[in-house]
Each structure stands twice: as structure tokens, then as C-alpha cells.
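If you are new to this repository, start here. Below is one unmodified record pulled from the training split, so you can see the exact layout before writing a loader.
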Amino acid sequence: MRVLVVEGHEVLGNGLRWLLTRVPWIERCTLAHEPQGGYDLALVDVGLGLPMCERVAATGARTALLTSRWDDVSLRTARSAGAFGVISRDLPARDLLAAVRTLARGGMPEPRPVAAGGGTRFTPREREILRLVGAGLTNAEIGAEMFLAPGTVKHHMLGIYDKLGARNRAGAVHAARRLGIVADRREPFTPPLDPLRVLVADPVDVRRAGVLLALHGRPWVEACAGARTLEDARAMAERLDPQLVLAGTPDLRLPGIPTLALREDGTIEQRVESDTGSVSPRERDVLFAFAAGATNPVIATQLGLSPNTVKQHASSIFRKLGVRNRAEAVRRADELGLLAA
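And here is the target side for that same chain:
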């Protein structure tokens, strides 16, 4: 089989191509950004748009859409764009290859729902709204950014609260980050001057493979290795003695080792510099309460404080973290590790 991968993210595309070339029934796998003829199968990133899928399918290749676990793409939508299935990049390597095999044999692969609370799925628009909420934007500002009416944004937020089981914006941001629904957009990663031993801890096989391929040969990488689970990461850390961990999810951080997060597209987030020591233990308690979606009266009762004192702590937290509201404070605190258990 000859396979064409049309992927908008180079790291993910290279990781997928590497996995596909490991199986004997695939003769050739090519990564491209535009349709090409002469292929039996084609896998098209849904982020490139359904018209791209239509153009690729027109070449005669049996085509499937590539999605992430939070992309809500039905088989009916895929069929309308000329595709014969939907394949999630986040599948374990064995399941992903099985889905491609199903496509090759004339089947129509469709990913199982994967999400928070019983198969709930989030649309790209909902994820973008969550990202902007985490950046501290109001409904009106989000509407202006996304060309939506503030009322439409509010409607989406109510749906997001329901899906996440959150009571307010701060609670929604915290839940979304814990579940990996949103990816941050920070400054581009600046490589260190001295070579480091790097551990890539990521449950997504395609992304982990792509990141490891990208790291090989980099002058700032002395050695690198990958791990899928926290248990694997701990075992690999004993052998590699890493000086840096690139984590695909927050729960794969290793105590005592500097950690940077991987974005959904496999790129590395720049570390946020902040004086985390300036946040007092009591303020950290208030941050945990923010993340749980608690109101000022509830926080006051839980911590034995007056509501006015809670407001003073909140103002101090906003100033120290350089944010303007609770949702942004939760996002920044999580980035800085202040909400780690």
C-alpha cells in the first residue's frame, strides 16, 4: 500500500509517517501539504478543512480524515467531503494502524468517543472559547475575537459548563486543562545553550514519535527517550537521568525535574518566568478554591476568612501572577505548578 499523509503539523505528520513505515504492508508513506496522485490511501488533517479532503479524495486515493480526540467529526461529515472514515491521531499505535488497515480493506473506521464524563466531545470552537477564557477574555472580547455575538459565546459557555461539570469560568479552565482539552499558545520555545538529556513523556504515540524524531540531531539534545505512562516515565528517568521533561499531559510531570508542556501539535511551550515563591500558602489555598469553582462566600467559610479578606487575597494573586480575573489566574497557576497536588 502507498499512503499519503496530508498534515498541517509537521511534528505530528512525521510521527504518523514513522509509525506507518514500521508495518510491512505499507510500501511507501509520503508526508505532503497538498494533494498528490499515485497513492492507494490518504490521511488528511481535518484542520486543513473539508475542501482539502475533497481535493485529496479526487485523486482516487481511499481517504480518511485525521482528527484529535476532541474534534467532533461524524462519519456523515467525512463522507460529505469524500472521505471513507475518521481516524484519531490520539489512538495507541496498534489501534491507529488497525484503523488504517480497516480503511485499506474497504471499511469505514470511526473513532470511539473519548472525553470527559462518559464520552462527551468538544468542538474546535468550544476549545478555542476555553482557550480565550483561560487568557482572561470576557464574553464580549471573545465574541470580537471569534466574530460571534456575546450571547452566542454565553450559550457556548453554558454548554461547556455542562460538559465539564463546572460552575464557573475558573472551574471550567481548570477542568479543561486537567483533561488536555485546551493547549496554550505561549512564546516559541528557546533551546538551551548546553546539551540536555530529554525525556518525552506523552501518552499519544503519534505525537511522542514526532517529538523524538524532531529532537534527534538537535545540538541542544545530548540524549532523548520516550515514555507513555507515568510508570514508564519514572523507570526511564532512572536510566536516562533526564535534565528536562517534555510532558504531553500535566500528570506526567516528574518531581524535581524541570518540565515543559507539549502543545497539541507537538511543539514545545516556552517556560513562564514568575516568582512563584511570592504566592503565600494562604493565597495558594485560595487558588485551589478558585480552581474548584468556589465563590467568595464559600471560600470564606472553607478557610475561616471573611469575604473581604478573600477579595484582598484575590487582588494580591492577580497582581503577583499578572492576570486580571480568576479564570486567567487558574490557567497561569496551573502553568506554574501552583495547583499540583
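Two things worth knowing about this chain: The chain has a mean pLDDT of 88. The domain at 116-179 is CATH 1.10.10.10 (Arc Repressor Mutant, subunit A).
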